[in-house]
Amino acid sequence: MGMVHARSMDPVPMHGRDLGVHPDDLEVVEAQQETKKEVLENKDIVVQHVSIEGLGRTKEDYLGYEIADVFNAKNLIDVMKKSHEARMKLLRLGIFKEVQVLIDISEGDDALPNGLDVTFEVAEMKRVTGSYNTMVGNNEGSMVLGVKLPNMFGRGEKLTFQFSYGTKETSYGLSFFKPQPGYYERNLALNLYKVTGQFPWSSLKETDRGVSTELNFPLWMTDHTLKWEGVWRELSCLARSASFAVREESGHTLKSALSHTMTIDTRNSAILPRKGALLRINQELAGYTGGDTSFLKEDFELQLNKPFLWGSVLSASLWGGMIFPIGGQPVSIADRFYLGGPTSVRGFGMYCIGPQSEGDYLGGDAYWAGGLHLYTPLPFRTTRGGFADLFRTHFFLNAGNLCNLNYGEGPHAHLQKLAECIRWSYGAGIILRLGNIARLELNYCIPMGVQSGDRICDGVQFGAGIRFL
Amino acid sequence: MSLAAEAFVSQIAAAEPWPENAMLYQPLREDQILLSDCASSLAVQAYLRMLGLPVRVHCRANAEYMSPSGKVPFIHVGNQVVSELGPIVQFTRAKGHSLSDGLDDVQRAEMKAYMELVNNMLLTAELYIQWCDENTAAEITRPRYSSPYSWPLNHILAYQKQWEVRRKMNAIGWAGKSLEQVYEDVSQCCQALSQRLGTQPFFFNKQPTELDALVFGHLFTILTTRLTTDELSEKVKSYSNLLSFCRRIEQTYFESQDRDSQSGASDYSKGPSLM
């Protein structure tokens, strides 16, 4: 029986300095190497020790959960598989730069003849890391400077500070993140932030200063987020020429809101999916926990994708939402829904659908929007993969409506109101995927069902977005 | 908006007559408005009444933030928004309504000087007493100023405003003054006004001007507002011609007009009477 030194699937040069064995006795096994499988997989082994080397501030008990499964391995292939899984788990924690796995036969007095020791050699991240990057959001770009303190107290806690200077807004945020030991998806986040946003479609400027607490946890197939947010909002006119309806909304409000989001996402990619579905349901109750803003807001998003002929994808999406004021107080312009733009109802200006006053869009109490898309790969492409895979062409049909509701009327009247004066548009365009977070679209749009007051974009429309219809 | 565009808009505005639905916005009358804002608002109301221009007073908790200059009161006429007495005087003049057209250049310069005196002395003294006298600030100013907001925003906004006013006082050199010195300044200002007024009905003889509106706004508000002590109103009360000046304007422009129009309640925002 030989000694075995496995390195999982990492192509880093191996070094046997801690092994105390002759290099002649070593046998290197690559996990994917199927040829050795017959020889090794039937040999029963026992994992006697699993240890982690290279820990500085990280507490060992925090990592125990991640690597415990290695003990259950019954044969060598199993050990390597489980070690690899454990390695991925350790890397996912975001506290190590590098993780290497060493598998060795057990040594010492209590060593069994078929005993194995697994050692994870880790390199911790620095206490403080800085970053600099640029971001693209809904029709704007910004420069972000960040300071990160990963693994602050040794159990995966992360403190992040971000300062962003953008084309339209300047903001900062401080956030603290704490995962549950052994259950990374279940985590708690505390945030403190200041965000300034300018909304030219409403001639509105909003400065938010707030704190929020967020609890994330998976439940069966779904991901849930429970959140409390306390935010001091300051609204002001962007220009002296702002409409009086917007001017009337100026001033300070305090919103304290509880919200819950449920997400099911089976898509294979968030930006250019080929298959799968997304359902997101969000509800927000403001005013129950204090503040001077009271409403109940319901919002959903559904997207279905199906592979179609010749590598094309058929996609359908539906959005909808409604906001109910509580206590007779009208809903603030900052809480209402907006619709339209290059990634929602295409062919209409950014958030330029629905109620408006002197050219300033005031948002609505209810909305819905739907889209049908046929995505196809770029024509005449020569190879799969590569640069061309970032692009798609698409043909689309979008429709939607946004309006205010009279709450004296029943649900039937509401539905009728949303079915009247539907805006819709169709066209074709090219999409560029930016990383896995955003996309750029260049479309030729033909808007239809235009109502007076809507701002349209007849012809070529360009835009970027994270959320898209 | 560019300067040229703004000038163009004001030209257009000048061409339009004064509408019936002009509005004046000020903070909430009962619970929120402060002495200084109340005085400024009353001055504008008196000015518009002297011109015979109708305006409806609207009280809004966020009036200060709605105002383009961040100061109350402001008027909404047609689609124009103008704040504070100075710009409002210019705005009405552009529309062809003015109180000071009958004055010669010397008188106009004198009027402007006295208006500056009132703004620099009375208004600043009001702000000082409201925000820099800790008694008044704690008992009256901060609770009133923050009354529309919920915890903890009420404290944040009140202290933010107090800090802002104190910084301004620092800048103009009032921070080192004691309350007694401020009362003395008010007294001197009143003496100057009293001497200028003499026995005339208005500052420039028979016809009221914007100076009369401004002085009335401040003195009347000081006389009718309860503070922690009566000291401020006592200073004004020792000048009998100023007292009768206030009564005269109140009677001529507020009481009689309201009797005539029979619609007093909605247009009337002067607060308690001197009688």
TrEMBL record, chain A:
Protein name in UniProt: Uncharacterized protein
Automatic annotation (TrEMBL), chain B:
Quote the subcellular location field of this record. Mitochondrion outer membrane
Q: Name one GO cellular component term.
A: SAM complex
**Protein transport recorded as keyword:** yes
The molecule here is called Metaxin-2
Q: Which family does it belong to?
A: Belongs to the metaxin family.
Q: Where is the Metaxin glutathione S-transferase domain?
A: 187-249
Name one process (GO BP) from the record.
mitochondrion organization
Q: Does the keyword Protein transport apply?
A: yes
Name residues in a coiled coil.
none
